[in-house]
Amino acid sequence: MDNVLEIKNLKKIYHTKEGETLAVEDFTFNLKEGDFVAIVGPSGCGKSTILSVLCGLEEKSGGDIKLKKGSKIGYMLQQDSLFEWRNILDNCLLGLEINKNLNKETKEHVINLLNTYGLKDFIYSYPDNLSGGMRQRVLRILYTHK
Ligand SMILES: Nc1ncnc2c1ncn2[C@@H]1O[C@H](COP(=O)(O)OP(=O)(O)OP(=O)(O)O)[C@@H](O)[C@H]1O
Ligand SMILES: [Mg+2]
Q1: Within its chain, how far is the Cα of 128 from the centroid?
Q2: Does the C-beta of 47 come closer than 6 Å to ligand 1?
Q3: Cβ(44) to ligand 1 under 6 A?
Q4: pLDDT of 18-68, one tens digit each?
Q5: CB 69 within 8 A of CB 124
Q6: N or C: which end of the chain has fewer CB within 10 A?
Q7: What atom of ligand 1 comes closest to residue 50's alpha carbon?
Q8: Contact (Cβ atoms closer than 8 angstroms) between residue 64 and residue 53
């Protein structure tokens, strides 16, 4: 397989109580190694849907998706999932906490990462006080350190 990713005639229909929404139709797209691509289009045209299907959060209704063997997909959600009642540090420690990997060393590592990501002054702030970009940087730590 030459491409890292091959999407052919992707189709996605959402089924809800209110009815059906055709979110994506006939989307075909190839990605080569090293490509940096932006998907642009008006609000509601199906960009997030494509990414959600790609990473397995949603099931496709039709078409084909081929990912080169050994490739991995990382996905930063449009709507973040920070807990508003936990401060930034506690949000970042959540995965470690749940997986019982939280100790002095792992906590220190997360604090160092927060420093590296320019969030030093916000460690004890609550998500509500952060900008969108800052929240995304917090998520990056949250997702990678479990
Ligand atoms: N979970 C869902 N259930 C039902 N319909 C949905 C769902 N998610 C998206 N849709 C519908 O699918 C269509 C595409 O939505 P999508 O979120 O993919 O758009 P988008 O291009 O990412 O928009 P935006 O630029 O506003 O983020 C819209 O009509 C939307 O209402
Ligand atoms: Mg979107």
Answers
A1: 20
A2: yes
A3: yes
A4: 999 999 999 999 999 999 999 999 999 999 999 999 999 899 999 999 999
A5: no
A6: N
A7: 18
A8: no
Q: Which pairs from 45-51 meet CB under 8 Å and 24+ separation?
A: 46/12, 48/78, 49/12, 49/14, 49/23, 49/24, 50/7, 50/10, 50/12, 50/24, 51/75
CB 91 within 8 A of CB 142: yes
Q: Which two tokens stand for residue 27?
A: 């989307």
CA gyration radius, the chain: 19
Q: How far apart are the C-alpha atoms of 115 and 110, rounded to whole Å?
A: 9
pLDDT score recorded for residue 145: 65
